[in-house]
Amino acid sequence: MTTSISKVKEIGERARPDKPLIVAGVEYRSRLLVGTGKYKDLDETRRAVEASGAQIVTVAIRRTNIGQSPGEPNLLDILPPDQYTILPNTAGCYTVDDAVRTCRLARELLNGHDLVKLEVLGDEKTLFPDIPQTLEAAEILIKDGFKVMVYTNDDPIVARRFEEMGCVAVMPLAAPIGSGLGIRNPYNIRFIVEAATVPILVDAGVGTASDAAIAMELGCDGVLMNTAIAKANNPIRMAAAMKKAVEAGREAYLAGRMARKQYGSPSSPVGGTFF
Question: Considering 7, 40, 117, 243, which one is annotated as catalytic?
Answer without folding.
Answer: 117
